[in-house]
Structure formats: C-alpha cells, structure tokens
Specification:
Elements (H helix, E strand, L loop, with lengths): L4 E3 L1 H24 L5 H18 L4 E4 L2 E3 L10 H8 L10 E5 L23 H13 L4 E5 L7 H8 L7 E6 L6 H9 L2 E7 L5 H8 L4 H15 L2 E6 L3 H5 L2 H11 L4 E4 L19 H14 L10 E4 H4 L14 E4 L5 E2 L16 H11 L8 H4 L1 H10 L9 H7 L10 H6 L4
Parallel strand pairs: 4-5, 4-11, 5-6, 6-7, 7-8, 8-9, 9-10
Antiparallel strand pairs: 1-2, 2-3, 11-12
Helix pairs in contact: 1-2, 6-8
C-alpha cells in the first residue's frame, strides 16, 4: 500500500468544496426522484455544513481511493460514510461507533487496562454475531473490534468480520501480538479497513516493561509494516504518562508514526477506569495540559512543518465543549465488553445489561433513556469516583457495575451543559 496522503491548506479547501457539491448533487437528485422531501434536504445540508466546520482543523487523510475527515467518521465516499451523514436527517441520529470486545484474553499486562477487573466467559459466537447485526440496525457504521487481544482468537475474529454486510467500516484494535503476513492478508480479505496498534511510549525498553511483554515494541513495529503491506491502514493508539508528556513523548510518538507510515495517532489521556479505577483522573484540573494537547492537535494538522506528517487525533481536542463533548451512551458511541455487558463507554465501568440475558435492543433503549442528550462534561473523568464507591459499598470485586446498581447510580450524574454543536444542529432536543 502507498503511504497515506495528507491534505492541508488549499488542497483541503478544494476537497471540502468538492465534497459539499457532491453531497448536494446526490441528495438533490433524491429530491427530484421524490425519495427525499425539500425540508429533509435542507436539514441535511444545514447540519452537514455545521458538522464539517467542526472538522475543519483536522487534516484530510487520503487512504487509497477514499478520504478520512476524522478518525471515527467512516471514509468518504464509502457506503458507511453515506449512511453516517444521512442520519443527520433524523432528530436523534444515534451512534456511529461501537467498541466491540470479542475476548478478554491478552498476553500483555498493561497497568492502565480498562478491562483488568472484568469477569465472565467470552460471548457465544452466535450471540456475538446477533448483537453485531442489531448494532448495524440502530445505525452503527464503524466497528472497533478489540480484545483483550483479538488476534489470540483469530478464527473467532475472522468469523465475526465475515458476518458483516459490507456496508460497515471495520477496524481491529490490537497490539500486533501473534500477527503474521498470512493473518494480515486474511484480515484484509475479511473486510478490515484499519487497525489501531497500541504504543504508549516511544522508548523501546520502557514499552516492553510497561506491557510486561518481551519485544512488545518490535511486535508493534512489525505489525505496522505487515498491515501496511496488505493495504490495511494503521493508527497508533497512545496513552502517554504525564512524565512522558512533559518530555516531548507525544512528539516522539508522532515521529515514530510518521516513519511507520501511519494515518493517525490517537492520543488518549490516562483514565480512572479498570486497573486505574479509584485513581484521581489527571484531566479534572489539568487545564494547562489540556491546552497544550489541543495545541498539539492543531499543530500536526496544519500546513507548514508537519503538513506531510501523520495526522493527530487528540481526544481532549475532539471532545472539547466546542467540538463533540462527551458522546458516550449511544449518543455517538458505546461499548460491548467481552462477556456481553453493554456500557456507555469502555472507560465507564457501568453496565445497563448483558446480551446473554436480554436482547441488545432492550438494553440499548434502557441506556439511551438516560443518555438522551450529549453533554460537555467528560463522565469518565467526573464520575469515576462514584463508580468506584458504588463497587466498594456493595462489595462488588469485578467490573462493570451490574445493571441493577447502575440504574441507581447514573441518575445522580451531571452531564454538564448541552453540547453547543448539537444544539445548533437541532439534534437531541
């Protein structure tokens, strides 16, 4: 596969105008065919323009013949992209993304793992596939399939991938452990668009120690090459420590990603979840760090020195109040853990029910009854303490908080002001 191409400046300006013209022509034709009302057409274009204005500080990443405007928006002009933007016709678009765990098995021992205290057996394959179909039915267009380490259950992973309808954008979150060129090729044939490879420090020795896996850094490097060789785009997922951040560690990870021909680096701050549940969230009062991370997002996505570098996708920038805010709970995303618990987010260790015991749609609707509107507070930061206290008060040794306790806990959560973007778009009223 050729290296990703990054559009900034005038090239990005031209691209966005071509995109808008394409969308207008496509849906104006629907109006003329009486498949779309004039009101629906106007609503779609109005909301799309507001949405694109929020993405304008991102690079456009050309991957093969398609374009990524943002990491979690399916690539233009794929079927998944068109289904995603058509959701703007409705007052409640519903989720685009699910993080979908197929196994808790993992050979790594990362100290921040948000699944560390999860329990239970992996879902039965038929329940797994049924849940995936139902998620597609509610409009999920991008599946992030993970573990643990999904490559440890390779046949199970491929069977799930091959069950999709060809209209979803499929990603695999992995460390690269046990990958071979043959497996990479098989994943491409099964429909995988991209992979997110973990890399939490740019220092090889430190990363091996962090994961508890000998040669973890080399495994990641080799995996990036194998995936690129078969045409699967590569993203690095990084959760840098405060110390690393202060010592230009994020910048060094960006350099590595660029040399590995990655399309994005996703920077996620340390969460008080899983193995770190009970730890003070580092972002509650870290205003200066948030500002510097947001500046880094803009820096690596702008014309100039880093114009041809890997794009940055910094979570505190993407989820800032002026952008998307917190979209957990099925507003834009949610999580299914390996044994079937439906959670608002992988970083919120609470469950609204288990698909082994109830139909997914019943659980999903229960969750959405609470998460009706998107807010500006990061619940993973502000409510980790209440989750930890609920587990301790009820002597619950594992995560997530069971549904019967979750329903008592979440009504006390404050989601903050309604996200301005969605207010302007007239969504989730």
């Amino acid at each position: 596969m050729n290296r990703p191409v990054f559009l900034t400046g005038m090239k990005k300006f031209v691209f966005y105008h071509v995109l808008v013209v394409h969308v207008v022509c496509r849906y104006l034709l629907r109006v003329l065919q009486m498949k779309l009302s004039v009101a629906e057409f106007v609503r779609l274009i109005f909301r799309l323009v507001l949405f694109l204005k929020v993405l304008i500080k991102n690079k456009v990443v050309k991957i093969g013949d398609v374009y990524k405007l943002q990491l979690y928006l399916p690539a233009y002009p794929t079927p998944a992209f068109w289904e995603s933007i058509e959701k703007f016709i409705r007052p409640d678009p519903g989720p685009l993304t699910v993080v979908f765990s197929i196994t808790k098995a993992c050979g790594y021992k990362c100290p921040h793992c948000y699944q560390r205290n999860d329990s239970g057996a992996d879902l039965d394959m038929e329940v797994l596939k049924k849940s995936a179909r139902q998620m597609s039915d509610v409009g999920v267009t991008m599946f992030d399939i993970e573990g643990g380490e999904p490559l440890l259950k390779f046949d199970r992973l491929v069977e799930l991938l091959e069950s999709f309808d060809g209209k979803r954008e499929l990603w695999v979150n992995t460390t690269g452990h046990l990958l071979t060129p043959e497996k990479a090729k098989k994943l491409k044939q099964a429909g995988v668009f991209g992979v997110m490879i973990s890399l939490h420090t740019p220092d090889e020795k430190d990363y091996n120690e962090f994961t508890g896996m000998q040669d973890a850094f080399q495994i990641a490097r080799n995996a990036a090459k194998m995936f690129n060789d078969v045409g699967i785009t590569v993203v690095l997922n990084s959760c840098p420590s405060d110390e690393l951040f202060e010592n230009n560690g994020v910048e060094r990870i960006m350099e590595i990603a660029n040399s590995w021909d990655c399309s994005f680096v996703q920077v996620i701050h340390g969460k008080s979840a899983g193995a770190w549940l009970g730890k003070d969230d580092e972002m509650i009062r870290a205003h200066e760090k948030i500002k510097r991370l947001c500046d880094l997002h803009v820096q690596y996505n702008s014309p100039g020195k880093y114009a041809d570098y890997t794009a940055a996708s910094v979570q505190v920038f993407e989820e800032s109040p002026n952008h998307f805010g917190c979209t957990a709970g099925g507003i834009d995303r949610f999580y299914l853990n390996a044994n079937g618990e439906v959670q608002p987010c992988e970083f919120l260790n609470v469950s609204f029910g288990n698909v082994n015991n109830e139909d997914f749609m019943t659980i999903f609707n229960r969750m959405r009854a609470f998460f009706r509107k998107p807010g500006t507070k990061w619940l993973c930061a502000t409510e980790s303490k209440s989750i930890h206290e609920m587990l301790k008060a009820n002597n619950i040794p594992t995560t997530p908080v069971p549904a019967r306790f979750t329903e008592k806990l979440v009504p006390s959560w404050q989601k903050g002001k309604n996200t301005p973007l969605y207010e302007k778009m007239g969504l989730y009223k």
